[in-house]
Write a structure and sequence with these properties.
2 strands, 26 helices, mainly alpha, two-stranded antiparallel sheet, about 5% strand
Length: about 650
């Protein structure tokens, strides 16, 4: 309440009634009511859960138009002070919200796509007894994500960052009665903690080096005299480690596929459109740091290129529809990381692909949920087949997302992904050629595994059991899918053509003006990329579409397929490098503690106890015993004296 009154007072004093604080307040308050209100909120909890992100979306639209109505440059931002968080001996941490082109872009994505997913969830979770808790946790996630992107300093960003981690843990493990869901939630939580340590170290290095962790303070100081390149490299790498954890990038990608154990709307919201994009936001927001540290920027590019390749290869081998989409998310986030790693002029292109991906990937995850909803929650694509006739709306909407992700013109993915490939090649040199080739190859692999998914799910003969009766989903699930499908088609025109988004984001991420000549003509490159994509489609038809798909997986597969199904041995590597040595170290420490530390303590206690027991035997209570002891003592003294004299 204090923060709200303070914000209103601030707004009146400046002559502008700013509503930015309401963006976080609405979902946070709704989460508090739903999670703390108990069973009395069961009847209407889902309605409140949907109303909160919708209200934030409306506020976001109002703020967006207020922002674009201002002149360009620094005037297109509002840094609103709410209250002082930690005032200690001259040091203070403020709770400030920053509204600028980059943050409002993410706000509209989070609340817009998030609202559609909330509405979809009303139908998807209709019969779940804990639906009220589900919407409360979804609102908690939205509030934390909005705090993350609206913070004007790294410390407050870290609060939202941790809130997102907590909410994702709760949502992945929502069906905690399933051991697989509980394990997946813990795995995601622990892997993300590794990345969070990197982010916390980066913040501490910033404060130790610059004396501040505000965006404006840090970004100004990095260009100052006396700033060591080694320090900037360390900060850049630690920020990248944090981004790898949240965005499931190599080497911290192992949690994403397991996270599909959560309800499908969770996969659509957290693991397609919002949470996994937090790392991309962090790198794009920290562009000033990477601009002065070329080696850290190169590390971002390498991580993006490696991950987009890994995700594409993994997606080619799985039969679980949600895991194929999860691997696809990993790969597409790799494209975004590669783009934001390419430096000034390309940050905005990475954000473009992030936005178009938010539409088509959320669309496909909701489509996968619709398929599961009509097939008794079956996720194995080998048990589908021919669903296009029984689920025509799901087929068409999912098809829009499919055409967008593989990059078919005029769908949105064609514009944003081609821009990334073009920018990678324009980097020049051996690294530019390598990254461009990797990005083109990734486009071909994407076309292959997504076409394989379409064929196995919607085409061919039916392969479902007799007790399954596939049917179309209710309208409350289909309408959000249709809206997202429209976005999958139109987002390319609205965001990419004419450079409208690039120009809008310039005050936040720097100039988006292309430098130098193109390595390859954009039209020629588009033709090459499209040819590679069509080659991937043809390969999928040749290997999967022209013959019946067996309902059971083949028993004999290649080593490459086995490795891809095991996520390219990611878990095995982590277990070999970290888990097993950690377990051996723990056992050794327990052994040392039991036999060493406890052994010394217990041995000393046994020595004292044994000695006292033996000494106690001399206390017999008989005078003759004491007289004999005195005589023995006197004789010992006499003998000692004689020996001393003789010596």
């Amino acid at each position: 309440m204090y923060s709200a009154l303070h914000a209103v007072t601030y707004a009146k004093s400046t002559g502008v009634f700013d509503l930015t604080f309401l963006l976080v307040l609405f979902p946070a308050a709704s989460a508090a009511v739903l999670l703390l209100g108990g069973r009395r909120t069961d009847r209407w909890g889902h309605l409140l859960g949907c109303a909160a992100p919708l209200a934030s979306f409306v506020i976001g639209v109002i703020e967006f138009f207020a922002l674009i109505s201002r002149d360009g440059g620094q005037s297109r931002q509002l840094d609103q002070h709410l209250w002082t968080w930690v005032p200690v001996a001259g040091f203070h941490a403020n709770v400030n919200v920053l509204l600028d082109p980059l943050s409002i872009t993410f706000v509209l994505l989070i609340t817009g796509v998030g609202s559609l997913i909330h509405i979809y969830s009303v139908g998807y979770m209709e019969h779940d007894p804990d639906r009220r808790r589900f919407f409360g946790e979804l609102n908690l996630f939205v509030a934390a994500m909005l705090l993350l992107v609206l913070a004007d300093n790294y410390l407050l960003l870290y609060v939202g960052w941790e809130g997102v981690g907590l909410a994702s843990y709760l949502l992945i493990g929502f069906w905690s009665h399933k051991p697989s869901a509980a394990v997946a939630a813990k795995k995601a939580f622990l892997v993300n903690r590794v990345g969070d340590v990197g982010l916390s170290i980066a913040i501490m290095l910033m404060f130790a080096t610059f004396g501040t962790f505000s965006f404006s303070g840090v970004f100004t100081a990095v260009h100052g005299p006396g700033v060591r390149s080694g320090t900037m490299l360390a900060i850049g790498l630690m920020l990248l480690l944090g981004a790898c954890g949240k965005s499931a990038q190599a080497p911290l990608q192992s949690w994403l596929l397991d996270a599909m154990e959560g309800p499908t709307p969770v996969s659509a919201l957290i693991h397609a459109a919002t949470m996994v994009t937090a790392g991309v936001y962090l790198v794009a927001r920290s562009g000033a740091i990477y601009d002065v540290s070329p080696h850290a920027r190169l590390a971002v590019e390498i991580v993006g290129a490696v991950t987009l390749t890994m995700g594409a290869i993994i997606g080619c081998a799985h039969d679980d529809i949600k895991k194929v989409l999860a691997a696809s998310t990993m790969s597409q986030i790799g494209y975004m990381m590669l783009a934001v790693g390419l430096g000034p002029g390309v940050y905005a292109i990475g954000i473009m692909h992030l936005l178009t991906h938010g539409f088509f990937k959320a669309n496909m995850f909701l489509g996968a949920g619709s398929v599961m909803h009509g097939n008794n929650d079956e996720v194995n694509m080998r048990r589908y087949g021919g669903l296009r006739k029984l689920m025509p709306v799901t087929f068409v909407t999912f098809g829009f997302g499919y055409l967008a992700i593989i990059g078919i013109i005029p769908f949105s993915g064609f514009f944003s992904k081609d821009k990334i490939i073009e920018s990678a090649l324009d980097k020049g040199g051996a690294t530019g050629d390598l990254f461009g080739a990797v990005a083109i190859a990734g486009a071909g692999l994407t076309a292959f595994y997504m076409t394989r998914l379409m064929i196995m799910t919607f085409f061919g003969v039916k392969r479902w059991p007799r007790d399954v009766h596939p049917h179309e989903s209710p309208k409350i699930m289909l309408i959000p899918m249709a809206i997202l499908a429209a976005g999958s088609l139109l987002a390319g025109y609205l965001l990419v053509l004419g450079g409208s988004l690039q120009h809008f984001l310039t005050p936040s991420v720097g100039s988006s003006i292309e430098q130098g000549a193109h390595t390859i003509s954009p039209w020629v490159l588009s033709v090459i990329t499209l040819a590679v994509v069509l080659g991937g489609v043809a390969a999928a038809w040749w290997l999967v579409g022209r013959k019946p798909v067996p309902a059971e997986p083949p028993t004999h597969v290649t080593l490459a397929t086995k490795a891809a199904r095991r996520s390219l041995l990611g878990d095995d590597i982590n277990e070999s490098i970290f888990m097993h040595p950690g377990a051996y170290l723990t056992r050794a420490l327990v052994f040392f503690d039991n036999r060493g530390v406890d052994g010394m303590v217990n041995g000393l206690a046994a020595l004292v106890g044994g000695s006292s027991a033996r000494l106690r035997r001399t206390q017999t209570g008989f005078v003759r015993s004491y007289a004999l002891s005195m005589l023995a003592g006197a004789l010992a003294i006499a003998v000692s004296l004689l020996l001393v004299r003789v010596g």
